[in-house]
């Protein structure tokens, strides 16, 4: 059985800014783009979150929710320097480290002899060392797999530790909200809610086949995670070739107008995933694409090269794709393919 630690820095970008400028302590601050240039929030302090501000939110919206919000520009080089020092600590406990972004990572300590082999003690020590060296807090989750460790790290934020022991897994997942499952965004979450599913316990009442019928391949993943099962190993090297979101609708979308009305919802979920990916590594978009699956299961994909992702761009592609079939649609997907060349420049999100 594996022993996995998930470390998640608390409001990382904002916390670094407060550390650099202590006068910001206790104030609602956010790091992100200008409200006048359709910028988005990269992260914000807990004081700002009390007003409803969150990452991936348009900056203009954040300023309406919190007029006193202190908006700071992104200092990516600074965050990368701090992150590199923190992640160097992880490798002192294991060679199996999987960074998910600048502010979070999985550590497989199954074969580590530190702290007598106790993953819990190692997690406590790592949190203490992060604070003592960087004056930043982090939260940690300890469990026998990646899914549970990641969920646990968010359980006692900020500056907290949550351990899910093997004999506690069944009870832990029973009341776990399905929205805590990675991959369950607003669209899938609403579909689950429409099925009367709010917790993993509710989800356990459905067969794998039924979930696959409703959610495709993701249905099998839902079935396993609802039971606290995750066999995915900690991966030390991973560079995504593409990123996408898609939704299969219970009722076919009748016309083009209906399809275009779904684009903003999918685009918001896409932005959230893209922001998480961009925090982990610098990737340059090569091609945008939209995929439609019609009511007869015929699938078409249309691409557009050399452009920055935008809602307008995806709407344009969706319209072109629909013209190929001109009939009801059961699935809409949108995404981006990344350039595979070396270490490309970071994708600009109008910060």
UniProtKB/TrEMBL annotation:
Subunit structure: Monomer.
Role: Poorly processive, error-prone DNA polymerase involved in untargeted mutagenesis. Copies undamaged DNA at stalled replication forks, which arise in vivo from mismatched or misaligned primer ends. These misaligned primers can be extended by PolIV. Exhibits no 3'-5' exonuclease (proofreading) activity. May be involved in translesional synthesis, in conjunction with the beta clamp from PolIII.
GO biological process, any: SOS response
Binding site for Mg(2+): 8, 103
Name of protein: DNA polymerase IV
Cofactor: Mg(2+)
InterPro entries named in the record: DNA/RNA_pol_sf (IPR043502), DNA_pol_Y-fam_lit_finger_sf (IPR036775), DNA_pol_Y-fam_little_finger (IPR017961), DNA_polymerase-Y (IPR050116), DNApol_IV (IPR022880), IMS_HHH_1 (IPR053848), Rev_trsase/Diguanyl_cyclase (IPR043128), UmuC (IPR001126)
Note on cofactor: Binds 2 magnesium ions per subunit.
Site note Substrate discrimination, residues: 13
Highest taxon above the source species: Bacteria
Location(s) in or outside the cell: Cytoplasm
Major place of residence: cytoplasm
Family: Belongs to the DNA polymerase type-Y family.
Residues the record marks as active site: 104
Entry keywords, A to Z: Cytoplasm, DNA damage, DNA repair, DNA replication, DNA-binding, DNA-directed DNA polymerase, Magnesium, Metal-binding, Mutator protein, Nucleotidyltransferase, Transferase
UniProt enzyme class: transferase
């Amino acid at each position: 059985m594996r022993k996995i630690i998930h470390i998640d820095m608390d409001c990382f970008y904002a916390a670094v800014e407060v550390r650099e400028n202590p006068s910001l302590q206790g104030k609602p601050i956010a790091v992100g783009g200008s409200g006048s240039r359709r910028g988005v929030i990269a992260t914000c302090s807990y004081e700002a979150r009390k007003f409803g501000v969150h990452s991936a939110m348009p900056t203009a919206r954040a300023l309406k929710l919190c007029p006193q919000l202190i908006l700071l520009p992104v200092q990516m080089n600074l965050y990368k320097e701090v992150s590199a020092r923190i992640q160097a600590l992880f490798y002192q406990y294991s060679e199996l480290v999987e960074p998910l972004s600048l502010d979070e990572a999985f550590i497989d300590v199954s074969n580590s002899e530190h702290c007598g082999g106790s993953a819990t003690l190692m997690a406590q020590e790592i949190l203490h060392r992060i604070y003592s060296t960087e004056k930043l807090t982090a939260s940690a989750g300890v469990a026998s797999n990646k899914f549970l460790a990641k969920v646990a790290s968010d359980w006692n934020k900020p500056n907290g530790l949550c351990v899910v022991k093997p004999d506690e897994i069944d009870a832990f997942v029973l009341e776990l909200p399905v929205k805590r499952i990675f991959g369950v965004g607003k669209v899938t979450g609403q579909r689950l809610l429409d099925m009367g599913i709010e917790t993993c316990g509710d989800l356990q009442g459905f067969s794998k086949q039924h979930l696959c019928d409703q959610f495709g391949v993701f249905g099998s993943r839902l079935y396993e995670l609802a039971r606290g099962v995750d066999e995915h190993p900690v991966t030390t090297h991973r560079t995504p070739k593409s990123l996408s979101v898609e939704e299969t609708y219970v009722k076919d979308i009748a016309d083009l107008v209906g399809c275009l009305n779904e684009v903003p919802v999918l685009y918001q979920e896409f932005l959230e995933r893209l922001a998480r990916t961009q925090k982990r590594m610098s990737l340059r978009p090569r091609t945008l694409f939209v995929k439609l699956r019609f009511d007869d299961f015929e699938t078409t994909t249309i691409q557009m090269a050399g452009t920055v992702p935008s809602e307008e761009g995806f709407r344009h592609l969706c319209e072109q794709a629909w013209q190929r079939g001109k009939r009801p649609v059961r699935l809409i997907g949108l995404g981006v393919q990344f350039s595979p060349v070396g270490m490309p420049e970071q994708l600009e999100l109008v910060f």
